[in-house]
Amino acid sequence: MNYLVSHLTRKPPMMVKKIVGHWNSKSHPGLSGQGDHYRERDGCVQKFNAIYGYNPLLLSQMKAVPVLDGACVAGM
User: Fold this and answer.
1) Which Gene3D superfamilies does the record cross-reference, listed alphabetically (predicted)?
2) What tens digit of pLDDT does each residue of 9-58 get?
3) Is 19 within a domain?
4) Is residue 20 part of a domain?
């Protein structure tokens, strides 16, 4: 989705920090914990670059962090 948004808006993506809840103490380690994740991700990035004809992703240093830690924030 970041490819499409960056291609259409010509703006970098924005990282939004998730709110960690105590109710999910046995969460899955995630895709990046798998040994071949980065190799497969690089292959996907190259495929998207070929589809778009370029890499529309732009460098960004922006991060949004909810100010109400653990509270329900509209739109988050």
Assistant:
1) Spore Coat Polysaccharide Biosynthesis Protein SpsA, Chain A
2) 998 877 777 666 655 556 666 777 777 888 888 999 999 999 999 999 88
3) no
4) no
